Structures are given as structure tokens and as C-alpha cells.
């Protein structure tokens, strides 16, 4: 049941060649990695697929700017997520001159507000490809549109595997199903909270 609900709620996955990037900035939202003081690289979560999707879009475009949006949830003692990921990509030689970081945000509304500041400072058109998890894109898109962006979304990391399974699996309780429901409920509550606050 959780898979069916997730499929209805999540924005669908796309092939990169279905997206007309046309040099537009590619904005990737944080929450995909953790910075640990003892490591010289970020530790990626399942949502690290956001970065994989963005890399494919960057390669397809050839001249887009990659905007990494995400700060540190643990204060200034820990490097911001976006800066740590930029350092990681730069060390690999990937698009070093085409990456911009937004290192302050700790939630989706701040992602949109602080990215808006960057676009205004650079006099960039607010026409973007927004990359995030499929379940998160409804709220993310509305936050960015609230800040005056024209948004085309690119979904990543579906909540549950889309590989075909025997019908019997639909009736077997699983930890993944519980995690899916938890994620969806948090997202729906976040959507309601943002609407009440006027963030969307």
C-alpha cells in the first residue's frame, strides 16, 4: 500500500534527455549528505541520488551553473553541506568553475530565499531546474515559486524500489513501508506548516 501511495504522491522519474536544460542553472537541495570532522569527504545518504541526477544534467548541458543549496544543521563547527560537497566535486575535477554554493539554509524555505538572494546578486534569470527527491518536490517547487522562480523539476531517489516484485510482497509488512509512511507524513505536515506560515 505504501508503494502505491508513494507513486501517486512523488513526482515521476525522468530520463535526462527529456529535460531541456538550455544552460539554465541547476539547483540541488541539501539533505543528501553529512559532513564529519574526521573525514575528508561527505557521507552520502540515499538522497545522494540528487547529486547523481544533477551531475547527469550538468554533463548534458555543458554550460549550466550548479547551485548547491544547504548549510550545516550542527552550527559553524561543522562545514556546510554545500561547501563540503563542492570541495568533494572539485577534488574530483568535476565542474570546479561552474559550482556555486548557498551555505546558510537549514530548511526548504531558506533554500528558496537564500538562492533568490544569490540570483539577484548575480543578476541571473530566475529560471531553473530544481533537483530533489520526488516526494519533496511539491513543497520545494512552491517555495521557489513563492520567491519568483520559474521552476522545472527533476525528481530523484524514489521512496521505494520500482523493480517488479511478486504480488505476495504487497501483503508482507516491511521496515521500508514503515519508513515510507514516516517520510510521507513528515512531508505532508511540512506542507501544511509552510502553508500556514505563508511560505508557499
Automatic annotation (TrEMBL):
Name recorded for this polypeptide: DUF218 domain-containing protein
Organism: Echinicola pacifica
Biological process, per Gene Ontology: Gram-negative-bacterium-type cell wall biogenesis; peptidoglycan metabolic process
Matching InterPro entries: Cell_Envelope_Assoc, DUF218, Rossmann-like_a/b/a_fold
GO cellular component: plasma membrane
Domain DUF218: 26-190
